Amino acid sequence: MQNNRLTLHTDKYQINMIYAHWKLNRHNNIRVFDAYYRKNPFGNGYAVFAGLERIIDYINGLTFTEEDISYLKEQPEDYDEGFLQELKEFRFTGNIDAVPEGTLIFPNEPVIRVKARIFEAQLIETAVLNFFNYQTLIATKASRIRQVAPEDQLMEFGTRRAQEADAAIWGTRAAFIGGFDGTSNMEAGRLFGIPSVGTHAHSWVMDFETELDAFMAYAEVHPDNTVLLVDTYDTLKSGVPNAIKVGKWLEEKGYRLKGIRLDSGDLSYLSKNARKMLDEAGLDYVKIIASNDLDENVIFNLKAQGARIDSWGVGTQLITAADNPALGGVYKLVAKQEDGDFTPVIKLSGNPEKVTTPGYKTVYRIISKNNGKAEGDYIAFNDEKVKDQERIKLFDPVHTYLHKYVTDFNAVELLMPVFRVGEQVYSLPTLEEIKGYHQKQLSLFWDEYLRKLNPERYPVDLSESVWNQKMELMSKFKQKNNG
Ligand SMILES: Nc1ncnc2c1ncn2[C@@H]1O[C@H](COP(=O)(O)OP(=O)(O)OP(=O)(O)O)[C@@H](O)[C@H]1O
Ligand SMILES: O=P(O)(O)OC[C@H]1O[C@H](OP(=O)(O)OP(=O)(O)O)[C@H](O)[C@@H]1O
Ligand SMILES: O=C(O)c1cccnc1
């Protein structure tokens, strides 16, 4: 049952809404939706945007096949033939803007903006959020892990524990964007050009009479790429001594043992002792690799203990974002095009954080020309002239007395045109370029915003016009609802 099609990868309520829009002849109305997230995951100070490549693939492949239509015909809703005909001719004809993958993003700022017929904009909500939420989450987790091991090799080992195949593949790509160097997943390697890496499992050792036989046999087949897993029986009494024997044998053949892998026990104690034994045997070039339910906190602590580990294999905790398994990104209607103008719409909530910010808006990153650092992100209406302003007032949208004026800045617009009238106008950078761009993004921010424990909150502010309009709409709707 092969299924690579994603058009029906949507919630039924989207189909029911677009059907009702069609019945009421509202389906061609142009609407604007913003996608954003509300709370940083893992207690981090930022998130790393990922998922755009998948979104672009999805939009480009958005057509209803005969099978899709037949399935809709089976539904109890008894959709009109005219609607199904409309779906047969369906293709995306709207505009999408998004921040580039690898961008550091912050709560409550639009990172994807869709302006399209409601018929199209509503249909794509589910899939767009699905891709954005998961991939951004994993890229952010990877970025946290990279932060605690800036110089080490980081290998993604999570496929066996991932939430199924797509999560493994696209999660691996996101991990690479966030700072990983390689993956054990061959398909991710093939698809995206991510370096594929691998050692061997306990089964290899258990399949031979002795550990030494197993190590020798492996080294004979892979003399220039041997990493030996040394913890099957007794790491320091058997595994490391046997690895040293193999290392010496490889030297005689003109090769070098590449590494040993520790996969259980006290990784600090074992790595220090293994390092000593290897060095004393003249094998100081042999790398020590660690795995076993690692995450940024364990790695950070191991480093603080002086563990002698050069390379980390990280699986479960990364690919499942185990300590924060969902990003919670949302997709909200913010404006309706009426007679050429954009009418803002708002969603109220008892929870102030859930009140939407109305209007057809864009986001700027305000970068000081004096020090090259980001001062804050600034959400303004699409037609506000932010770049030409000499002085900009940044104020907290909740605690408005908290404000500062910034002069001498560059206002860098974050949202890039991705689709125009249904045509892809954005050429995707290579994965290496995205990774490099992510590193540059990090250098824009003060360390206080980036630290992984209790970071400072980076300002995401509204222009005065956007703020005023939000306040006006809030009081207007409150009055209406109070009769
Ligand atoms: N020195 C250390 N300091 C902090 N955490 C460590 C240290 N050494 C290992 N760990 C981590 O502690 C956890 C211990 O896990 P666990 O008890 O499953 O390991 P184990 O019993 O050694 O091995 P296993 O059960 O997989 O054979 C793992 O996440 C591991 O990475
Ligand atoms: O621990 P993770 O971060 O998920 O990394 C992947 C794990 O997968 C392998 O273990 P395996 O499936 O053999 O099971 P194990 O946990 O018993 O070692 C490997 O030896 C790692 O321990
Ligand atoms: O190559 C490895 O050592 C590896 C790959 C996947 C999972 N665990 C380990």
Describe the structure.
This protein is α/β, with parallel strands linked by helices and 483 residues long. The longest helix is centred in the first third of the chain and has 24 residues. The radius of gyration is 27 Å and the shape is globular. The model has no long low-confidence stretch (mean pLDDT 96). The structure holds adenosine-5'-triphosphate, 1-O-pyrophosphono-5-O-phosphono-alpha-D-ribofuranose (PRP) and nicotinic acid. The site of adenosine-5'-triphosphate (ATP) has 12 residues, from helix 12 and helix 13. Adenosine-5'-triphosphate binds next to helix 12 and helix 13.
Count of alpha/pi helices: 17
CATH topology of the largest domain: nicotinate phosphoribosyltransferase
Number of domains: 2
Overall strand count: 21
SS-derived structural category: alpha/beta
β-strand amount: 15-25%
* The CATH top-level class label of the largest domain: Alpha Beta
Keywords:
483 residues, alpha/beta, nicotinate phosphoribosyltransferase, TIM Barrel, 2 domains, 6-stranded parallel beta sheet, 38% helix, 20% strand, binds adenosine-5'-triphosphate, binds 1-O-pyrophosphono-5-O-phosphono-alpha-D-ribofuranose, binds nicotinic acid, transferase, glycosyltransferase, nicotinate phosphoribosyltransferase activity, ligase
